[in-house]
Structures are given as C-alpha cells and as structure tokens.
Amino acid sequence: xxxxxxxxxxxxxxxxxxxxxxxxxxxxxxxxxxxxxxxxxxxxxxxxxxxxxxxxxxxxxxxxxxxxxxxxxxxxxxxxxxxxxxxxxxxxxxxxxxxxxxxxxxxxxxxxxxxxxxxxxxxxxxxxxxxxxxxxxxxxxxxxxxxxxxxxxxxxxxxxxxxxxxxxxxxxxxxxxxxxxxxxxxxxxxxxxxxxxxxxxxxxxxxxxxxxxxxxxxxxxxxxxxxxxxxxxxxxxxxxxxxxxxxxxxxxxxxxxxxxxxxxxxx
Length: 267
What we know:
Elements: H1 2-9, H2 42-49, H3 64-70, E1 77-81, E2 93-98, E3 104-108, H4 109-114, E4 118-123, E5 128-133, E6 139-143, E7 152-174, E8 181-183, E9 201-205, E10 220-222, H5 223-226, E11 229-250, E12 257-266
Antiparallel strand pairs: 1-2, 2-3, 3-12, 4-7, 5-6, 6-12, 7-11, 7-12, 8-10, 9-11
C-alpha cells in the first residue's frame, strides 16, 4: 500500500479501468495530490490504484471526495454515496458534489430532513414554543421563558454520517413574528451555557466549534426591522466534526429563530 501511495505522489496514471458507480465509465485517470488519501479507507484505495478490478468489487463511494479520488476529472453534479458502506445501515442516497473545488458535499435542509439527521432538544427549562421542521428545508427553534432572566434554550443538531474538516456556506435566520428579538452578542458563551445579562443568543457551529468565528451577527435585531439575516462564511478548516448545530436561548423576550436556505459545503 505504501508503494502505491508513493506512485500517487509522483503523479502516475492508472491502467485502463471501468467503474459503474453513478458517473459512467472512463478509460484512465490522473492521480491527484490534493485529497487526504489516508481518510478514504482500503477499499477506496484498492479501486483507485488497481490496474484491473471488477466493478462488483468496488464499493459505492462514501463521499464526494472519494468519487473525485477515483476519477479526478469528474464534473460537478449529483452523485450517489453510501457513507456507512455497501449493504450496511442506511441505503445509498444522492448528493450534490462540487468537484471543481476539491470534492465538497452539499448539506442543505432538504437532505438533512430526508435522511433524518436532525434532532431537537431543550434544556434549562420546560416551556417551549414551536420546535421542528416547517417545510422541506426550514425549521424553527422557539424557546419560551417566563419574565426575568431564567434561561430556556433549544438546539437543533444535524449529525452527518461522515466526518468533515473543511466547510463553507450560508443560511438565513428569520423569525416567526414581529415580536421576536435576537441578541447575538454572546460569542464567549459555550453550548448550553446561560448568559448572565438577561439577554438570549443565537449560536451556530459544530460539536467542537462553539461559535463560528466570522459568522456572528453581532447585534440586537428585530424581525420586523431587519427581516432575515444571512450567516455566511468562506472556505476554512475546522476541527474534525460530524455535527452541525444551531442553538437559541431565551431570557424573557421572544427569541424564536427560523432557519432556512441552508447551503453548507463540507469535505
């Protein structure tokens, strides 16, 4: 195996090979240096480097990156992936792949809901408003507290079936009524930590990234005055993660948030 990886580093070509994994057949492919091959698994490496390998022995790729390693000239588009392996667990499903940027997988609201990746939980209190999906690609997080500084919070967590270490993307945050207020001024507060100044918060990140640097709204805003606000960020590396988290805390004033137009690319 080490010898094969060494050949890849030299930019060698494989001998003609044919695959039927959703993107047709091809006669040869270049070995690229960019993707981290050690993350792909022995089966994927065998299918990438073997001179002749029967199609039936090549498993469905687990990610867009694995598709790209098998076929470096693969175009952008819709591909079939099977993150937990053939004939195991969940069935294969279609995703949109950005191959031009290096094998990124699109995570949007429709995919999260269709695959059942999202879970909702509350903590710090028992009173909740509406929590859950509003449509095919949007959901609401609506904690409801009594008067005063008693914190009630709710979190939506999308747990993906694969790990990612790079991302870019955007989503929109709005509200369900004109009474809603949003105080996104608590970048120092970790997941599930109550603020101490009678103001709630809106947070987004991963299980290992408590508050996405560069994405904070950083202001108090009302839905009737500002409408929806975009949370967006450029491509960056982050600690290896499997979760996307949204969290909203309420400390007296209405703090519901409607999350929509999720467009998050991960690799």
